Amino acid sequence: MTNQDDNNQEIEKVEDVEVETTKKTSDSDDKKQNDEYEKVCFICRRPESVAGKMIELPNHICVCNDCMQKSFDAMSNGPIDYSQLMNIPGVQVFNMSDMEQSIPKQQKIKKKKEGEEYKPLVDIRNLPAPHKIKAKLDEYVVGQEYAKKVMSVAVYNHYKRVATDSMDDIEIEKSNMLMIGPTGSGKTYLVKTLARILDVPLAITDATSLTEAGYIGDDIESVVSKLLAAADNDVEKAEQGIIFIDEIDKIAKKKNSSQRDVSGESVQQGMLKLLEGSDVEVPVGATSKNAMVPLTTVNTRNILFICGGAFPDLEGIIKERLTKQAAIGFGADLRDKYNNDKEILKKVATEDLRVFGMIPEFLGRLPIVFTLQGMSEDMLVEILKEPKNAILKQYQKLLALDEVKLEFDDGALHAIAKKAMKKDTGARALRAIIEEFMLDIMYEIPKDDNIGRVTITGDYIRGTGGPLIDIRSNGYSLEERDQMKQIAAAETKEA
Asked: Which residues touch 23 (CB under 8 Å, ≥6 apart)?
């Protein structure tokens, strides 16, 4: 045997070792990854935390004891002789490898480690006080002082309750909230900011799509499924999250309806157990239950529910109640006393919401009710420029990447706010208006490297003029040119 043959054999041995090592590494990685998630029964789709210990079959297929026993019973007691089944022409052998990896990753449930104690997401020692929560909200949300204060206190009390987990006989009730305010007043934005501050999973859903179980639409439990998905299928994490249900006024009880109210009163009744706190069986990685989706159980006891809605015509109900109360006796007030009251929503009572169509049991599980005020022109101007991620700051950053300074004068800000007020959609209208006027500027600026500054004027917004454009010249930056102008103006004034 030659030296060359010996070398070839050694190379083959090394390659075999490398292949074997790689295989072992990949197998261990797969095992480690699989250990993080619960095993799910291939037949009934229940996780091992619900169905018990699984029987592992080849190709990573797991079957629970119940389903395995049922399969044996069906095979032994059934009318079909399975031993003769393979002799039937056209019958193919069932290939188990085809079922491998049948459950996608988004439907895998994270396993709770053995011996691991309950850990609250928000540590009571690190839980920010109400004034600190409000200060954080102030950085992002303009106005709505009362709403921010109420939410800060409610959230603080809720997560204190979660962190202590009712250590004594005195059980603290949940601080579920009901927000009432016109469209574009910042209901959704407040909740999003709150969840970001506390770093807890958040699910936002729309009540208009919810229907009673068995009807076309999303089941009531789908809101919990969305929260589970936001928590990366970690049940324990999801059980301490926040669920925001918008457009809650759309599930009000229908008046004078002879048909079954499947998207109104029935939805309210179905939500009672969720709001109170109960074990709910929800699909993983989907919004509706079906045969191919794993199911898991989520307890809603520590989930904070925040409901929001515009409640149109509620003002009329409040006025009617107040007028009725004020129009009795010698000291009666005029009937039109409340017609021009802009803060009439603040006088809302549970009675008004019942007249609107919300059932008493539902309202009883939302103990904290508060209102948000509609947007004024001055508030819209503040929203444009004050928050940390204000719309104007976003555009200024975009243009700064092209080394162009963007400015808005006061006239432009008020002109944008006036246009937004006419649309009557609150702060949502601001983005669309600015986008319209910034389109040509964003298109033209990259063409010319000499442009140093663009100033948006009120005349440009009103359509009677154009933006002011400053050109870089003589090697001076815009800041240097501004300083030189100020010095020149001061010298002229002294002279």
From this structure: none
Domains belonging to the chain, first-starting first, are: 3-105 (no CATH), 130-371 (3.40.50.300), 377-494 (1.10.8.60)
Stated pTM of the model: 0.69
Measure the CA–CA gap between 84 and 273, rounded to whole angstroms.
51
DSSP β-bridge partners for residue 408:
456
C-alpha torsion sign, points 195, 266, 301, 285? negative
SS3 content of the chain, % helix, strand, coil (to 5): 50, 15, 40
CA dihedral in degrees (458, 460, 463, 465; nearest 10)?
110
SS3 188: helix
Q: Calculate the alpha carbon distances from 409 to 116, 412, 441 in Å.
A: 58, 5, 16
Model confidence pLDDT, tens digit, residues 200-232: 888 888 888 787 665 666 777 888 888 888 888
Residues 492 and 484: their CA atoms lie apart, in Å, by 12
What's the rounded Cα separation, in Å, for the pair 267 and 251?
A: 7
Beta strands at 451-456 and 177-180: parallel, antiparallel or unpaired: unpaired
Kindly list the distances between the CA atom of residue 312 and the CA atoms of 157, 248, 338, in Å, as whole numbers in the listed order.
31, 12, 17
